[in-house]
Design a protein that fits this description.
CATH architecture: Sandwich
Helix content: under 10%
CATH class: Mainly Beta
Structural class: mainly beta
Order of helices and strands: EEEEEEE
Number of domains: 1
């Protein structure tokens, strides 16, 4: 077991969705992760359809060691009208996916 195993996986702990157009949304997603620096940090989060299609990704370019949990937004996510809910998942640079996900209904 290495030091990076103690950081855990990246968890989505909250999400706020704002409809900004007919099929367009803004996502404010809060992620919790034991970021340790550039070698192990939460490096992105995704918006995923119920059938596992990737609808949007917010890349996180640096660790948030002193800011936990942290919230970042992604605007302009186009989601077809037939999709009524989405899943938010986070990714970290060591474990990949696997932390807590949240499924939410679209407004």
């Amino acid at each position: 077991m290495g030091w990076f195993d103690f950081c855990g996986e990246a968890d989505v702990v909250n999400v706020k969705i704002t409809q900004t157009g007919t099929d367009t949304y803004r996502f404010d997603v809060t992620v919790q992760h034991g970021d340790q620096g550039r070698d192990h940090y939460a490096d992105k989060w995704d918006v995923v359809s119920p059938d596992s299609r990737l609808l949007g990704t917010r890349v996180l370019h640096h660790p948030h060691v002193e800011e936990q949990p942290f919230t970042r937004s992604l605007s302009g996510v186009n989601i077809p009208q037939n999709i009524k809910s989405v899943r938010l998942r986070s990714h970290d640079s060591v474990h990949g996916y696997g932390g807590k996900e949240i499924t939410v209904l679209l407004p």
